[in-house]
Write a structure and sequence with these properties.
Layout lengths: L8 H9 L5 H19 L2 E4 L1 H16 L11 E5 L26 H8 L3 E6 L33 H8 L5 E6 L5 H7 L2 E4 L23 E6 L2 H11 L26 E4 L10 H16 L3 E4 L8 H9 L5 H10 L9 H4 L6 H22 L4 E4 L20 H9 L3 E8 L5 E8 L4 H15 L17
Parallel strand pairs: 2-3, 7-8, 7-9
Antiparallel strand pairs: 1-3, 4-6, 5-6, 5-10, 9-11, 10-11
Helix pairs in contact: 2-3, 5-6, 7-14, 8-14, 9-13
């Protein structure tokens, strides 16, 4: 089996189980790849080399006895550093936790490990996941493997860069304003933000923390859509601790009739016009869906232009109190945090807060009305391909294409569908009705097949993975 470090998690799981390849060989290939590329990327911030190899050898011995531990038996993974793990330091990107080792795994992370996965290490995240660029005061900045002068996005930028560079086949991201989908777009991989309430956030840096908890959802990231479909059922469902998670059935993407879908396509949300390559990728994905019988119409949801004002209003609606609580819980003095500007107390009137929450509900209600006539919304993930480092604060309108669906709490997948004039990956976003992740994933798989999907970075990351 060639290029182990770039194989899908699904294929690796089958190959390990059939003993075509050993878990030890796969883990070693990924560790070799991390060693080769991470000095350029700074994407993997904790590496469990010896421990991961020992666990892989144990997984191989278990298979020899006829024991399989789950669907991911022996498959190496990385985990975003916003998820607690007992196996290694979990910083959340904030100085107060620079040496913190949790006493228990985050729920979703633990579910992947109990399904047989082997943890290679942790991937970089901005402080508390709250940035569109992956940089923090503990580990510093992560680079994009397609252009080291550009960001992989945030907040799951370390995960996306590692996946794209072949360091891991699977990671677990989090998404409050686009933090799974934007890095997937910037790094040419696949990712899904599930419906709010699908995956428990227990043990995650931010989650069920009050006023805007529904903005945040956890979901898998990988190079291939089939791996999202493999991992999502493993992390879904109540854990008895996150009070917002409900036991909703999760459909199988293989059962979705794409020919029966009603698709609304927009390539401009009225806030920031995307580049022509991104707009053409959306149109090309629309033609693919039409080709299998879906009814596609160019139509923008009403009121989508409110996204930026509403999202930013909600993030600051309590005058910075929720962030001050996060800093206190992490043991980070405000003066040591890169987010101290956001945590500064600001007076907020009860009347202004009530009006903002009422406006949010009206926004969500309009979107639900729009979804009555549409099964899928096809649109850009961002108005630009990967941006130069340091430009995220001046580019916030570009990111409104993902923020909209955090406001509604709906599931959205991103998959590569083209290339920019600079040679950077370009993705499309496929948003489904609440609880219909199966529809988003089925449509993403079609786009992946029809438009090429993941393509490894070229000469910038010159080291090749081991062959076996």
């Amino acid at each position: 089996m060639q290029d182990l470090a770039f194989a899908s998690a699904t294929r690796l799981a089958r190959a390990i189980r059939s003993r075509e390849v050993s878990s030890l060989e796969v883990v070693q290939a990924c560790l070799d790849r991390i060693a080769a590329v991470n000095p350029k990327l700074n994407a993997v911030v904790q590496v469990r080399g010896e421990s991961a190899l020992a666990e892989a050898a144990d997984a191989d011995r278990a298979l020899a006895r006829g024991e399989a531990r789950g669907p991911l038996h022996g498959v190496p993974i990385t985990l975003k550093d916003s998820h607690d793990t007992v196996a290694c330091v979990s910083t959340w990107g904030t100085p107060g936790r620079a040496r913190f080792v949790p006493r228990e795994d985050a729920t979703a992370a633990g579910r992947l490990l109990r399904a047989g996965a082997i943890l290679l290490g942790k991937t970089n995240t901005p402080e508390f996941t709250l940035s569109f660029e992956t940089d923090n005061p503990v580990y510093g900045r992560t680079a994009n493997p397609y252009d080291l002068g550009r960001t992989p996005g945030g907040s799951s930028g370390g995960a996306a860069a590692t996946l794209a560079a072949g360091g891991s086949p699977l990671d677990l991201g989090s998404d409050t304003g686009g933090s799974i989908r934007l890095p997937a777009h910037f790094c040419g991989i696949a990712g899904i933000r599930p419906t709010s309430g699908r995956v428990p956030r227990t043990g995650h840096a931010i989650g069920f923390d009050g006023l805007v908890q529904s903005l945040t959802s956890l979901g898998p990231m990988a190079r291939f859509v089939e791996d999202l479909a493999l991992a999502l059922p493993l992390v879904s469902g109540p854990d008895g601790r996150d009070p917002h998670v409900v036991p909703m059935p999760l459909g199988d993407p293989a059962d979705v009739d794409l020919g029966g879908l009603r698709v609304a396509l927009h390539s401009d949300n009225g806030i920031e016009t995307p580049t022509e390559e991104i707009r053409e990728a959306v149109r090309a994905a629309g033609r693919l869906l039409e080709g299998v019988g879906a009814r596609v119409e160019e139509l923008r949801p009403p009121g989508i232009e409110e996204t930026l004002e509403l999202f930013m209003g909600l993030m600051t609606a309590d005058g910075g109190a929720w962030l001050r609580l996060l800093l206190e819980r992490a043991g980070t003095p405000p003066e040591a945090s890169w987010l101290r500007w956001l945590a500064e107390p600001r007076p907020v009137s009860g009347d202004a807060l009530a009006r903002l929450l009422e406006r949010w509900d009206r926004f969500r209600s309009r979107m639900l009305g729009f979804a009555e006539a549409h099964d899928l919304i096809l649109c850009p993930p961002s108005a630009r391909a990967a941006l130069p480092h340091g430009s995220e604060r001046t580019s916030v309108p570009c990111f409104t294409y993902t923020m909209t669906w955090n406001l509604t709490g709906w599931p959205g997948a991103v998959v590569r569908a083209g290339t920019s004039v600079e040679g950077l990956p370009v993705g499309v976003q496929l948003v489904a009705r609440p609880w219909r992740e199966d529809v988003a994933l089925a449509a993403a798989a079609l786009v992946e097949t029809g438009l090429g999907g993941f393509q490894p970075p070229g000469a910038l990351i010159e080291a090749r993975p081991r062959a076996s």
